[in-house]
């Protein structure tokens, strides 16, 4: 019910990391390689990852690098996962056409959503602009050989002086 309940788990996890508990790198490496392989195998689906996995990994590498035994390998796996996911986002956005009614982006991270957001907003604005009735009327009027009529809206009554 309360949005703070879900965040307590993440705060507790970050607290445990901050208090220098050991990070089990072999389990982490195995899981990261599984995620990377699954991301490469399924070109249209995103694997479930923590919503802030990029930010959390940056915090870990900034503040707990000494506790990660194979920090270079872990970092390269996370960057590979990020690159594969960004490539999926780019190729998915290239397939958007005029017939697209909805876009399903399940299991995206916060950083990926923030990268996609400006493009999607501009795309939707362009679709709405070209789908508006005024644009359709203008296209019909310019297609015929009659003089173009502009829609100026309802007329106002003027005051007498």
UniProtKB/TrEMBL annotation:
<dbReference type="InterPro" id="IPR036224">
    <property type="entry name" value="GINS_bundle-like_dom_sf"/>
</dbReference>
<dbReference type="InterPro" id="IPR007257">
    <property type="entry name" value="GINS_Psf2"/>
</dbReference>
<feature type="region of interest" description="Disordered">
    <location>
        <begin position="137"/>
        <end position="161"/>
    </location>
</feature>
<dbReference type="GO" id="GO:0000727">
    <property type="term" value="P:double-strand break repair via break-induced replication"/>
</dbReference>
<dbReference type="GO" id="GO:0000811">
    <property type="term" value="C:GINS complex"/>
</dbReference>
<dbReference type="Pfam" id="PF05916">
    <property type="entry name" value="Sld5"/>
</dbReference>
<comment type="similarity">
    <text>Belongs to the GINS2/PSF2 family.</text>
</comment>
<dbReference type="InterPro" id="IPR021151">
    <property type="entry name" value="GINS_A"/>
</dbReference>
<feature type="compositionally biased region" description="Basic and acidic residues">
    <location>
        <begin position="152"/>
        <end position="161"/>
    </location>
</feature>
<protein>
    <recommendedName>
        <fullName>DNA replication complex GINS protein PSF2</fullName>
    </recommendedName>
</protein>
<feature type="compositionally biased region" description="Polar residues">
    <location>
        <begin position="137"/>
        <end position="149"/>
    </location>
</feature>
<keyword id="KW-0539">Nucleus</keyword>
<dbReference type="GO" id="GO:0006260">
    <property type="term" value="P:DNA replication"/>
</dbReference>
<feature type="domain" description="GINS subunit">
    <location>
        <begin position="30"/>
        <end position="123"/>
    </location>
</feature>
<keyword id="KW-0235">DNA replication</keyword>
<comment type="subunit">
    <text>Component of the GINS complex.</text>
</comment>
